[in-house]
Model the fold of this input.
Amino acid sequence: MAMRALIADDQPDVIEALRLLLKPEGYQIETANSPASVLDNLATGEFDVLLMDLNYARDTTSGQEGLDLLRSVRQLDRELPVVVMTAWGSVPLAVEAMRDGAQDFVEKPWDNSQLLSTVRRQIDRRAAAQEELREAVTTQQALLPKRIPQIPGCEISVAWSPLGQVGGDYLDLIPLGERSVGIAVGDVSGKGVPAALLMSNVQAAVRALAPETSGTRDLTGKLNRILCANTAANKFVTLFYGTIEGRKLTYTNAGHNPPLLVRADGEQVLLERGGALLGVFPDWVYEQGEIALRPGDRLVLFSDGITDAENARGEAFGEERLFRMVALNRTLDADTLRKKVIAAVADFSGGTLLDDATLVVIAIK
Done:
């Protein structure tokens, strides 16, 4: 299939020269002679590469108009390969263009073979990145719980929504016996594929440790030492890991948003006991909490994608609003309560989340 190239320049002879160069190489060409025309083309069509001038009629030497356009292009499409051109090339301008999202930089007049090589290289890089993303999506989807474990006396409902195609939120429900389940909710630093890869490593480690460890404190400590030894210094993980067995919840909270337990009478209990986030302090000694579960209780676990959702005024949904909503609706079954919370967050934020979002609601019967 022909590659679609958008050429943006206000000089007709430059556009024609690029058309004559690229068309025999199998490119389908569209052209634009102004920043506004570039944005119109990108809003209505899909392209494999944008080859754009940095100087237009309003400002023919500084490149500022082109840099402003480049920032607007990135708001429309973060992944589109962009190769910028200018006859007034300079190292500072090239550095600024690359910082603002250009993948490569060529000066006019260009060398035909070099320009063709540059365009092809950027298209190939994007194709490789898209394939990597597809594999990451497949892997992450495969790691999500295939079904909700059923244990006596509990009804569990979950929602997991990455900000992009993959995310760094961690959700797992691990069957530990006929009357016991492990519950893990966490958040790894960063976003996109790197965060998803770290999340998958955390999940693999938790699944391996869960059947072998005697308590949540033991599992969290071992996982922390693994992460400290095998991840970069700027990477970390927050994790709430708990086990429900019968009417008892045992848990360790490693720096994660404290889950909320709402009693049938409206009493609210935050599950905070545990310690520091994972992957930073290798010798940290974690604590373990235990709490009795009673009929009518509602347990809500979440990531900060829920509470950080913002409205048009920049106000966060917040833990206080979430907790109040759960308390007021504590008689609802788990699935209905989960749907009500998600709908409220979507309505509050206009459907736009700032981060990956995870929500687990457990109703004790």
About this structure: The chain has two domains: 3-135, 144-364. The first helix runs from residue 12 to 22. The domain at 3-135 is CATH 3.40.50.2300 (Rossmann fold). The longest strand covers residues 169-177.
